[in-house]
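Format notes (please read before filing issues)

Several people have asked whether sequences and structure tokens are stored in separate files. They are not. Every record keeps both together, in the order shown below: the sequence lines, then the token lines. Line labels are part of the format and must not be stripped during preprocessing.
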Amino acid sequence: CAILLQIAEVLHEHPAVPTVELVFFGAEERIDDNADHHHFGSRDRVKRMSAEERARVAGMISVDMIGFGSELNSLTMGVGPQGLSESLQAYAKSDGITVKYRKDKAKTGSSDHEPYELAGIPAACLSARPDPTYHTEADVAAHVSSAKVATAGRVVLGYVWSLDSGSLKAI
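Then the structure lines:
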């Protein structure tokens, strides 16, 4: 959440060419043993979008689990358009940051990019892995590396600023 709040503040002072919608989705985690009981907020958002709204969305970047891990990844399920993930990785590389592609192997997606990708909207999840404390008692705020959060924020903000009308159509 902190990264999106900071990006919102910076974009307010220094807008980007594309319209940027920052969304904080609720109910992303699984609530029981049913593998499909999660991503309620993002699924509802996509379900409520009209065909015209979907057509106007150039892409969606989910920012999830960015505060720990040895590797920054762009995850996709590999079922939707891959242009956003590829251009995000290329942008990061041009800024000297390695973002590796990682196929999201979760059957119903591991983050809020899932409903967007399934709807045919270019989507990727920027995430740092591995995190051995994920969903354990050691998964606390003190575990988060502010440097890793800043790097992920630099990638997202720089990428958004790098987009123009031509590159938006290419995603």
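For reference, the curators noted about this record: The helical segments are 2-13, 40-48, 51-56, 83-94, 113-118, 146-162, 165-170. Strands lie at 60-63, 71-76, 99-103, 123-129.
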